[in-house]
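Researcher: We're teaching a course module on how sequence relates to structure. For the next exercise, students receive a sequence and then see the predicted structure as tokens, so they can try to spot secondary structure elements on their own. Here is the exercise chain.
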Amino acid sequence: VQLVESGGGSVQAEGSLRLSCVVSGYASSRYCMGWFRQAPGKEREAVAVIYTGGGSTYYADSVKGRFTISRDNAKNTVYLRLRSLKPEDTAMYYCVADPSPYTIRFASPRYWGQGTQVTVS
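Model: And here is the predicted structure for the students to work with:
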């Protein structure tokens, strides 16, 4: 099982980015997928989660209304659209996957990507 992120970069405040996470080794549709982030000196946080089935979502309050998570099961890919970026969004963003809707939000997800850096100035 592999999760490979891409799409990070450096942007100015109020800019936008789209992060992608390509999943290999299993059908991503069977798993809850999400994005975590961690900034230097801060705890990691679950930013967004998309669940299996109907595709309901969860967003951290700090990103609600600005970030959008989506999935394309045919491409085994999960996306995170980041809009109206703020300097406090600067962090390493990790794609995660877990079969449990509880674990992916409240514990440590089973699978992690290598991360992609987002820097907002």
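Model: If you want an answer key for the exercise: The CA atoms of residues 94 and 115 lie 4 Å apart. The mean pLDDT is 94.
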